[in-house]
């Protein structure tokens, strides 16, 4: 079992180095990453709530997105405190870090959790928007690795946490 985790960790590191990219590549992702940040996540929920006054058909998705974001972030913070994974720029050599360093732990990615928590309820309720929202969500998650603040498994775990939470919220 130890051998398997060592192998997975090594694959995670190798993939990290392939994604952690050049300066030009990183400037695009330095902008896109903010879509999963706390300010934009909260503002988008508030804006969507306001819009739902005029377009009541989106109200269930807005409520589900709010609940998914709230619950998933509570769980994400609990997992971060339990796992305490060191961020790649602190544990690996030659990482290209873009932006300011974070003080919390790496696993799972909060930005990935946030963007998927907000977009999945809309994708479930309005499948036509998948072609727009899924690529945006993936780009935000990918940006976290490009910028050097998360391993690929961190962003996958954040997306999975958000997906499970959003699906459970939508079923309830």
UniProtKB/TrEMBL annotation:
Among Gene3D superfamilies, the record links this protein to: Phosphatidic acid phosphatase type 2/haloperoxidase
Q: Which GO terms describe its molecular function?
A: hydrolase activity
Query: Which top-level group of life is the source organism from?
Result: Bacteria
Positions of transmembrane segments: 28-55, 61-79, 122-143, 155-171
Which subcellular locations apply to this protein?
Answer: Cell membrane
Q: List, for all copies, the residue spans of the domain called Phosphatidic acid phosphatase type 2/haloperoxidase.
A: 61-170
SUPFAM superfamilies of this UniProt entry?
Acid phosphatase/Vanadium-dependent haloperoxidase
Q: Name one Pfam family in it.
A: PAP2
Q: What SMART domains does this protein's entry cite?
A: acidPPc
Q: What is its main location?
A: membrane
UniProt name for this protein: Phosphatidic acid phosphatase type 2/haloperoxidase domain-containing protein
Species assigned in the record: Rossellomorea aquimaris
């Amino acid at each position: 079992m130890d051998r398997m985790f060592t192998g997975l960790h090594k694959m995670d590191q190798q993939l990290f180095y392939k994604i952690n990219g050049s300066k030009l590549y990183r400037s695009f992702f330095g902008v896109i990453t903010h879509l999963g940040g706390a300010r934009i996540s909260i503002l988008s929920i508030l804006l969507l709530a306001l819009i739902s006054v005029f377009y009541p058909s989106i109200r269930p998705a807005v409520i589900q997105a709010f609940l998914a974001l709230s619950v998933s972030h509570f769980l994400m913070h609990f997992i971060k405190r339990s796992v305490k994974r060191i961020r790649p720029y602190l544990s690996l050599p030659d990482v290209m870090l873009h932006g300011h360093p974070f003080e919390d732990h790496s696993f799972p990615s909060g930005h990935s959790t946030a963007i998927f928590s907000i977009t999945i309820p809309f994708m479930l309720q309005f499948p036509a928007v998948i072609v727009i929202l899924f690529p945006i969500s993936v780009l935000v998650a990918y940006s976290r690795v490009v910028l050097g603040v998360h391993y690929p498994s961190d962003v996958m775990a954040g997306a999975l946490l958000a997906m499970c939470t959003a699906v459970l919220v939508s079923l309830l």
